[in-house]
């Protein structure tokens, strides 16, 4: 390979590490070793509602017991840390703000209740609600609100998420080592949440 291999396993500390997680970690670990690369353990602690105390240490102990020792992780060769997602919020917010400034992302102020109502409405019509180019111009976000209103809501501390503004009528081509070129029509994608309302 022309570039150094860097792979990562990113479990959520929401409970004990299960066998499926061990298998995924093993695949990454062996791939890294085969290509003289780096196996990274990153803790995906962004789901604070399901966070379990001591689960992080349990995961690390379980991997070490299994002989799947990361080359980089919390407290070990922290070249590109931090390795807890929650500690990288400032980094992600910086880039999310840049995407907003360039018109490639936007603030969405829709409440959970509003979105649930839309999902139910779509379901009654035997459709699936997807937050994307078909409806984002009609929803409660910075694409539809006046700039002054957006700033007012931000200043007032209104809850929001930052969504990626998925391009319309484009074809993404992803080069996969096993499947070759994979083509994806952007019109089938939703506007992914980049930054959640709790800042994670």
Give your account of this protein's structure.
The chain is 32% helix and 16% strand. The protein is an alpha+beta fold and 200 residues long. It has two domains: 6-66, 3-Layer(aba) Sandwich (Rossmann fold); 105-195, Glutamyl-tRNA Synthetase, domain 3. The strands form three sheets. It has a three-stranded antiparallel sheet, covered by helices on one side. It has a two-stranded parallel sheet with strand order 1-2. The longest helix is centred in the N-terminal third of the chain and has 16 residues, at 19-34. The radius of gyration is 20 Å and the shape is globular. The two termini are 34 Å apart. 18% of the residues are buried.
Q: Would you spell out the secondary-structure blueprint of this structure?
A:
Layout: E1 6-9, H1 19-34, E2 38-41, H2 55-65, H3 89-101, E3 105-108, H4 112-124, H5 147-156, E4 161-164, E5 171-176, E6 180-185, E7 193-195
Parallel strand pairs: 1-2
Antiparallel strand pairs: 3-4, 4-7, 5-6
Q: What is the SS-derived class?
A: alpha+beta
Per DSSP E runs of 2 or more residues, the count of β-strands stands at 7
Shape: globular
Q: In angstroms, what separates the terminal alpha carbons?
A: 34 Å
Assigned CATH superfamily of the largest domain: Glutamyl-tRNA Synthetase, Domain 3
- Round the Cα radius of gyration to an integer and report it: 20 Å
Mean model confidence by pLDDT: 94
Q: Number of folding domains?
A: 2
Provide the spatial order of strands within the biggest beta sheet.
3-4-7
Largest sheet properties: 3 strands, antiparallel
Element string (H = helix, E = strand): EHEHHEHHEEEE
SS element count, helices: 5
CATH architecture of the largest domain: Alpha-Beta Complex
Proportion in helices: 25-40%
CATH class of the largest domain: Alpha Beta
- The stretches of 5 or more residues where confidence is low (pLDDT under 50) are none
Report the β-strand fraction as a percent range. Answer: 15-25%
């Amino acid at each position: 390979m022309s570039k150094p291999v860097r792979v990562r396993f990113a479990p959520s500390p929401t409970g004990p590490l299960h066998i499926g997680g061990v298998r995924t970690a093993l695949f990454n670990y062996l791939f890294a070793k085969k290509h003289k690369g780096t196996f990274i353990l990153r803790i995906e602690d962004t789901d604070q509602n399901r966070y379990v105390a001591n689960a992080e240490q349990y995961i690390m102990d379980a991997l070490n017991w299994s002989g799947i020792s990361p080359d980089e992780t919390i407290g070990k060769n922290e070249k590109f840390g931090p390795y807890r997602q929650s500690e990288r919020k400032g980094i992600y917010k910086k880039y999310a703000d840049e995407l907003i400034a360039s018109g490639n992302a936007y603030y969405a102020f829709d409440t959970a209740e509003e979105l649930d109502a839309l999902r139910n409405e779509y379901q009654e019509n035997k459709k699936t609600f997807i937050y994307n180019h078909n409806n984002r111009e009609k929803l409660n976000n910075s694409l539809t609100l006046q700039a002054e209103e957006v700033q007012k809501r931000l200043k007032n501390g209104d809850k929001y998420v930052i969504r990626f503004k998925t391009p319309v009528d484009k074809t993404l081509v992803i080069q996969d080592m096993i499947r070759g070129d994979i083509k994806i029509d952007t019109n089938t994608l939703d506007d992914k949440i980049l930054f959640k309302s709790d800042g994670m």
